[in-house]
Every structure is written in structure tokens, then in C-alpha cells.
Amino acid sequence: EEFLGADEREADRMTRLVKDLLQLSRLDYNREKLNKKEINVIEVIKGAVFKVDISLEAKNQNLKSLFVESNIEIFADKDRLEQVLINILSNAIKYTHEEGEITLDVVRTLEHAKIIIEDNGMGISEKEVPKLFDRFYRVDKARSRAMGGTGLGLSIAKQIVTEHGGNIEITSEEGQGTTVTITLPLLE
Ligand code: ATP
Ligand code: MG
């Protein structure tokens, strides 16, 4: 049973790797058809939170939603945006200790919706932060592999956000935590 379990995990990892690579390749060659519509970014955020809830619970982590807005309209592909958010939230969960805290905020600026996801986890050293969006880049290879990642999540996230005319930024302090800020243009 132990061997089968390990085989299954490896197979899952390979499946995810192939899917991620295919998506990146489609994004590279502009073959990923984005289905952009007028959507409420708050709804998408709530959907993503719902989907990571199980992982939060498994690690006894607390997710604090700070936002008060209930409707911020943007022009975006709902599924791709949800994928980005799930990715960033999953990172926050994966790279934060049990009982850790994740906060989520969304604010409307003059021209943008700004989504801020902050954790109080292991963080990333200053010199590694610029490399995070590189394909296959993982800060601690041994540790990350145990967590089942492929190191493509953030590069896909960046590509999708860029395709929406947005921006994604990471600030972090080793041992203190990480903040990811996604900025997306508001609907005109
Ligand atoms: P994948 O997302 O493909 O399953 P991954 O999580 O390893 O795998 P990325 O999401 O691209 O890959 O992240 C790259 C690396 O950045 C991670 O391996 C991890 O070392 C580091 N990282 C990402 N988010 C955080 C975070 N919130 N706190 C600490 N380290 C992080
Ligand atoms: Mg990831």
C-alpha cells in the first residue's frame, strides 16, 4: 500500500507537470484562448477561497478576509484568474507552518483592483525573490519536492496576470512571511 501510495503521488505529480508545461507552451504561443468577460473579482476570490478551504483546515491555518467590498468589476477570464488565486493561496498554505495565518485583502484604487495575499510563513530570502517567477525555480529544492510542487505555479500565474494587463509582485522576509500583490485593471 505504501508503494502504491508513492506511485500514485508520483503519477499525480507527472500529470500536473505535463498539464502545466502544456499550458505554458500555449501561453507562450498565444494559443491559450482567454475567455474574458465582465466579472466581479470578489466572486472569483470567494470561489478560490472555498476551494483551498480543505488545505487550510488540514494545517489548522486561519484565513482572515479583510475586504469590505462586495463588487469590483474587471474584464477577465474567470477560470484563469481563479487558477492564479488558488495557486497563490496554495503557496501561502504550503509554505506556512501549521496554525499559521494568512490574510487576504482586496482594494479598489483609481484604476485597479489590488489583491493582497499575505502569510506569516517561512518567507524567502531577498536574493531569491527576483527568481521566483522563473520556470522550475524553487527556493529549497528538497523541501519543495516533498511538498509536491513543480516550480511552475508562479511563472504560470505571472503569465496569466500579464495577459490581463495586470501585474504581480512579491515581497518577503525570511522567517517572517510573504506578501503577494496582484494588480488588475478595473473595467473602464
Ligand atoms: P507548483 O506551484 O508548481 O506546484 P511550487 O509551489 O514549488 O510548485 P511556485 O508556486 O512557482 O512553485 O513557487 C516557487 C517557489 O517559491 C516555491 O517552491 C517556494 O520555494 C517559493 N514560494 C512561493 N510562495 C511562497 C510563500 N508564500 N512563502 C514562501 N515561499 C514561497
Ligand atoms: Mg506553487
Which strand order does the major sheet show? Answer: 2-4-5-7-6
Query: What form results from the Cα inertia axes?
Result: globular
Low-confidence stretches: none
Q: Ends: how far apart? A: 56 Å
Q: Roughly how much helix do the residues carry, as a percent range?
A: 40-55%
Largest sheet, described in full?
5 strands, mixed
Can you write the helix and strand succession as a string? HEHEEHEEHHEE
Structural class: alpha+beta
Describe what this molecule looks like in 3D:
By secondary structure, the chain is of the alpha+beta class. Helix content is 42%, strand content 24%. The protein contains 5 helices and 7 strands; from the N terminus they run αβαββαββααββ. The chain has helices spanning 2-28, 41-58, 78-94, 141-146, 153-163, and strands spanning 36-40, 62-65, 73-77, 101-108, 112-119, 167-173, 177-185. The protein has a 5-stranded mixed β-sheet with strand order 2-4-5-7-6. Strands 1-3 form a two-stranded antiparallel ribbon. A hairpin with a 3-residue loop joins strand 6 (167-173) and strand 7. Helix 1 (2-28) runs parallel beside helix 5 (153-163), helix 2 (41-58) packs parallel to helix 3 (78-94) and helix 3 (78-94) runs antiparallel to helix 5. The longest helix is centred in the N-terminal third of the chain and has 27 residues, at 2-28. The chain starts with a helix and ends with a strand. Residues 87, 91-92, 95, 119, 121-124, 132, 137-140, 144, 149-154, 178 line the site of adenosine-5'-triphosphate.
